[in-house]
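Input/output pair, single chain:
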Amino acid sequence: MTICTQNRECFFGVAADGEIQLNDAGQLVQTAWRQLPSRFPSISLDAFVVMPNHIHGIILVGTQFIAASANRGNDRGAMNRTPTLGEIVRAYKAGSTRMIRKIVNANFAWQRNYYEHVIRDEQSFNRIRQYILDNPARWDVDRENPQVMTPEPESAWQGCR
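Output:
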């Protein structure tokens, strides 16, 4: 998934020599990402990167299960469901926004929506993971970079160059 800042403002740091130098806001969004599994125990986090004005991350979402009911006489179990990606993103955006507004910048905001892609096979998983890890080195052609003159193709993350 990809989440951008409102108006693609570069709130999180700068790109230099193929690396992102995170500022305080960038550190906070990174911390908020790492805290997600404590809020949603049925998820795991994979590749993640903070860019100057957006983040990319892979979230592995668990499966639904039925837990034993506290009422032993009742055959119906209590549903413990895996959160939707929308619920995870909403919690991430809300938590990171609160931290940034309190500590760094009272005017910080994420864009209204986010981009998601369901990874369906190992080949796609490995390609997208590598795209995320390589993203800082491609900032000069990144479509989200407000200063880029010739952006990479929209499908670059799909390996279609």
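The longest strand covers residues 43-50. The longest helix spans residues 85-103.
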